[in-house]
Amino acid sequence: MKSAVKLSTVAVGLAALLVSGCGKADTPSRDHIDSLRQQVYKLQVAVAEKNRVAVDSLLSVEILDYDQDSDSLLSFVYGKDAGFSFTQFGEAEIVYTDDKARVDCFVMDSTSSHERPVTFTLVLDDDNWLFKKFEAGLPRLYDSSVVADTL
What we know:
Elements: H1 2-21, H2 31-48, H3 52-56, H4 70-78, E1 88-96, E2 100-108, E3 117-125, E4 128-136, H5 144-150
Antiparallel strand pairs: 1-2, 2-3, 3-4
């Protein structure tokens, strides 16, 4: 009987700790949104110009952990035959924490097609947002708890 009481007391205590910890996380700074938008725009310009040096300057060293680099990004955007007429990373949706971000957008040509979704993950490195990886076709996320798990 005593062990059942102790067990229920521990369970109640753990539940109270979990509840008290929920919702107390600081909201990330709104200042990050402009920086993130600027980084996506810089990447868009560098990719449109096929400027590998400019693309490299926006990439985190961590991108190498995913076997990615400026060449693989340009190949992804323009296709294996390099025939895609890239114009923009359109309709970007950005979610972020204080040090990680996810950008869901579309690789678009002049038709503004939604056929080529791409997700970029960024990390904050010494006050600079850098691209950590890119992935094709991830679904857009609207549930912040799911987003946090993917960052």
